[in-house]
């Protein structure tokens, strides 16, 4: 069933007229003199006594499908004798519905709103003189990008496919992985101007009905001119506006989306973008890579390394500032003397020094993203090396600061989900300011504030820090470490509250007939 947002003026929709020329004039008047609008008038029936027209948008349709749609009908229409079922518009309509079996789907429409939506979506509309209805044939066939290897969430082991900008291609990639009749999909149109197709997919019987209801309600509350990317949807339906942390998970990998569906999550797929949204999401999910589940469970211990990288990316510059400014007694004497020697002649305090290098690295990172793909990474790396070396020789920064900022920048790329690296970059500057003002005490206060904020967040009703807070012992099998698959017998408790058992395999052991 489609949960289509109802137009406020739906009861006042203008219906299709019974005269063909009036309908054609209405189409031309509304859509203007668009050169890609094709209106082909033709005559059918015995001796060509019946006037008809087909309407479609060039570039959005598959012309072969239109040919297969009309050719059998035109051939058979000439063969039928008078009085044998082609004398009235209603008979022609029924005959056409019976003959056009070569297209994906056929439906009748009665109003111009549906006609315009169909034509601008890539369908073909058939109008007949004397009939106040039309036939819509599914003939969509525009040029699109084929399925290619993912460019953001790369893996060493696992599928290489990524989503594309076409909605039906993306839904088919998921259905090819989940061949369950309970995988349901609902489609809505969002945007008064763009009327973008937005689909939600879930597995009936596994999904949390309260979460599903909340997703429907939030999507139906959106009232905007246009949706061009899933980020527009994310910003409209997210739980918290004033938080740097993402409360929705976005991915371009079909296997990640399929795994989320099997855990009880809801996938939101937007036509025109390869990024799919998954809800609800928890904080630990951003440290989980898809290949954690494609290798042995001991490989999942790499998540602990990602947590270390998370802490380094967040705390390394601020800790350096705090130690060198307030807490020199924490350093070994030899290291303290070495750092003091390096800082001799540097005109700025450690905070200004760190801010200068951090801003420089952020500018280089942004430049590398915006520049052409072939030279962007080279510019980022070479630029960082050249500027860092020049800054040290000019006496603006110390070599130790270059090392700290470099480790911070590298650690920022360890996260499997790039959405988590962005808030860390912002919070890092706040902690650097706290360290410059209050030392380690300022860092501690900042960390407590961040943790309390994380505990206050929810994603579609699910606590953001679960299963840590609230603590759930059974869900700890897939957080900082991954237990073997045969040990993870239940789905996350707060994600799916029914059909919790997902695996009943016995513990691996040698067979009775072993050699």
TrEMBL record:
GO CC: one term? Answer: membrane
Keyword flag RNA-binding? no
GO terms under biological process: spore germination
Keyword Signal present in the record's keywords: the answer is no
Membrane-spanning residues: 304-326, 376-394, 400-419, 431-454
Source domain of life is Bacteria
Which keywords does UniProt give here?
Membrane, Transmembrane, Transmembrane helix
Recorded hits in PANTHER family, A to Z, give: LEUCINE ZIPPER PROTEIN 4, SPORE GERMINATION PROTEIN
This protein's name: Spore germination protein
């Amino acid at each position: 069933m489609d949960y289509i947002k109802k137009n406020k003026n739906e009861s006042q929709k203008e219906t299709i007229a019974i005269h063909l020329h009036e309908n054609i004039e209405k189409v031309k008047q509304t859509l203007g003199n668009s050169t890609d609008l094709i209106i082909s008038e033709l005559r059918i029936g015995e001796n060509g006594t019946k006037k008809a027209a087909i309407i479609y948008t060039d570039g959005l349709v598959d012309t072969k499908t239109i040919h297969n749609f009309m050719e059998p009908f035109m051939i058979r229409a000439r063969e039928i004798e008078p009085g044998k079922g082609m004398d009235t518009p209603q008979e022609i309509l029924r005959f056409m519905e019976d003959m056009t079996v070569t297209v994906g789907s056929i439906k009748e429409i009665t109003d111009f709103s549906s006609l315009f939506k169909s034509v601008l979506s890539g369908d073909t509309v058939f109008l007949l003189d004397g009939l106040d209805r039309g036939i819509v044939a599914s003939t969509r066939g525009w040029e699109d990008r084929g399925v290619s290897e993912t460019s953001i969430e790369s893996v060493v082991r696992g599928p290489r496919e990524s989503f594309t900008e076409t909605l039906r291609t993306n839904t088919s990639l998921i259905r090819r992985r989940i061949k369950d009749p309970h995988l349901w999909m609902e489609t809505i149109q969002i945007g008064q101007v763009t009327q973008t197709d937005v689909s939600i997919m879930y597995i009936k019987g596994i999904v949390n009905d309260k979460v599903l209801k909340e997703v429907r309600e939030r999507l139906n509350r959106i009232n905007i001119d246009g949706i061009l990317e899933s980020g527009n949807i994310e910003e409209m339906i997210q739980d918290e506006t004033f938080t740097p942390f993402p409360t929705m998970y976005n991915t371009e990998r079909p296997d990640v989306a399929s795994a989320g569906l099997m855990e009880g999550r809801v996938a939101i797929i937007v036509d025109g973008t390869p990024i799919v949204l998954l809800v609800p999401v928890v904080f630990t999910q951003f440290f989980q890579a898809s290949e954690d589940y494609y290798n042995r469970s001991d490989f999942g211990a790499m998540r602990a390394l990602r947590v270390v990288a998370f802490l380094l990316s967040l705390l390394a510059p601020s800790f350096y500032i705090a130690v060198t400014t307030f807490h020199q007694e924490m350093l070994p004497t030899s290291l303290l003397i070495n750092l003091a020697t390096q800082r001799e002649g540097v005109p700025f305090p450690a905070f200004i020094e760190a801010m200068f290098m951090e801003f420089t690295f952020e500018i280089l990172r942004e430049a590398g993203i915006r520049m052409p793909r072939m030279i962007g990474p080279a510019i980022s790396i070479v630029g960082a090396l050249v500027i860092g070396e020049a800054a040290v020789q000019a006496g603006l920064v110390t070599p130790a600061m270059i090392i700290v900022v470099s480790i911070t920048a590298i650690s920022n790329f360890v996260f499997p989900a790039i959405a988590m690296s962005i808030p860390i970059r912002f919070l890092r500057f706040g902690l650097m300011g706290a360290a410059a003002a209050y030392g380690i005490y300022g860092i501690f206060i900042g960390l407590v504030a961040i943790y309390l904020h994380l505990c206050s967040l929810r994603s579609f009703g699910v606590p953001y820090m679960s299963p840590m807070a609230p603590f759930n012992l059974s869900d700890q099998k897939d957080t900082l470490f991954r237990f073997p698959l045969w040990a993870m017998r239940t789905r996350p408790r707060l994600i799916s509250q029914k059909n919790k058992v997902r695996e009943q395999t016995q513990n691996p052991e040698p067979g009775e007939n072993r050699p």
